[in-house]
Fold each of these.
Amino acid sequence: MALFSFGKSTQAPSSAASAALLDGFSIEVMPRTAAKVDDFRALLPRGTRVYIAHIDGTPIEEMVTTAARLSEDGFTVMPHFPARIIQDEAMLGDWIARYQGEAGVTEALLLAGGVSEPRGAFHSSMQMMETGLFERAGFTRLHVAGHPEGNRDIDPDGSDRMVGEALRWKQVFSERSDAEMALVTQFAFEAEPVLAWAARLRDEGIALPVHVGIAGPAKLQTLIRFAVACGVGPSLRVLQKRARDVTKLVLPYTPDEIVADLARQATPAHGIAGLHLFPLGGIVQSAEWASSVLGQERRLRAV
């Protein structure tokens, strides 16, 4: 897996560096939002990795149908497996078999999930990994969650002790697993906290590649609502500062600044493997923004 280096030594224009970092981005959808898209092939580059978010209450049949549609259209599909809404190993095995048999899925994002209390045997992604079901089913890639600004659900005291222990366990697991593993982070609005966290992981011996989550274009009020609900930390100040500027309040947010900062400041030591888009303002808006950034780089190459 390629890791990006866009440090101070690069001579490329900032737009070119941003495009290089964004190239190969992933994005996520939900079944109900995917149903509103007539043709994903007109929106996303062929082969794009598309995560399918499993919101509590979504029937597995809808998840699998969405996965099959995206797979048939030529996309790499990575459904969420939220541990706390999965009853037991039998249900987990059934989900894996359905995704494989009906949609050819061999990738998964494993996470605890958005509910506070487990519905059954699992309360963490680690417990699902320990079953060995994904490996026995031949899954080739497993992603797990990263939290550059902490996670109050896991560490209510505001520390990162439990999160850190979980990441060290996942690093050890990755070393004995045949599947490729990586971290995909919660979305952030500022590069510095993300890069500091990524560098600290390397110092602690956690070498999993990092896919940095960024929020796609959206209204400011929408982003603030999602950021508060999802526990975004210090980088929320970027939105709060923008909200105080009347001239910017009515303008939609775009992630150009954080992408440019990541592209300019990241080095191989950070282990940044790419970007993951959270289309909080709509998948069409996010896809069009990504296309404009990548298209700008193509125009520069043609000059």
Amino acid sequence: MNWRSPANRMAAEARGRRGEALACAWLQEQGYEILAQRVKTPRGEVDIVARHTGVTVFVEVKWRARAADLDFAIDQRRLTRVAKAAELLAPAYVKAGDDIRVDILLLAPDAPVRHIANAWMPM
């Protein structure tokens, strides 16, 4: 059961969208091409699909109000969900010869962006 009120859910959604917009801007500054945002599949959602130097990257973005909370923002279950969604999306976004990876971007106010490249490995 979800105990969050509709107002809290809407506020969380707005924060998430802001975090994703900041993540897209940061990725573009690093030379990434943004291919898609908030792509939903039956297996889960990918926040950002991007490409950089022959690599198609499926990015999970986590935004927290405090930098200290970023260490607990992602877990194996969430990463697996992103990886499964990436599997379904790969035919639509991956160019022939591209490598594929799942990255995480962790963002908080007044903290540098934490980019964890190739964050997911099958167990």
